[in-house]
Design a protein that fits this description.
It catalyses: a ribonucleoside 5'-diphosphate + ATP = a ribonucleoside 5'-triphosphate + ADP; a 2'-deoxyribonucleoside 5'-diphosphate + ATP = a 2'-deoxyribonucleoside 5'-triphosphate + ADP. The structure is a single chain. The protein has 140 residues and is of the alpha+beta class. The protein has a single domain, classed as Alpha-Beta Plaits (2-Layer Sandwich). 39% of the residues lie in helices and 20% in strands. The protein is built from seven helices and four strands; from the N terminus they run E-H-H-E-H-H-E-H-H-E-H. Strands 2-3-1-4 form a four-stranded antiparallel β-sheet, with helices on both faces. It starts with a strand and ends in an 8-residue tail after the last helix.
Length: 140
Amino acid sequence: MATERTFSIIKPDATRRNLTGAVTAMLEEAGLRVVASRRIQMTREQAEGFYAVHAERPFFADLVGFMVSGPVVIQVLEGENAVARNREVMGATNPANADEGTIRKVHAESIEANTVHGSDSAENAAIEIAYFFKPEEIVG
């Protein structure tokens, strides 16, 4: 198994409810280590750029609006098979379909306000990490 890095966002619905520590604890308990973390207020430009892959989808404007509605916590996570492990602990996008004990089953409010974002591949993780963090900000 390979140690790798992945990207995570604790979304506005979770920061609004003061769940940053609870979500981070679940990530750490799953064997992931936070090697970079910052609380930011994402700008509209940042959100549109980050989610550009969805620009043609009907939910794009709502997604961007949601992501700029409050602060988020951006994180770089490290661990064995970090991408897959993070996705496993996050749970299904729709919390109604998420497994018991996953972040989304425990904390998400809805399919839209689903508490966390996580990279879906090692390639996308590298792109997403570089979007928000400089190499020297990641301390492993």
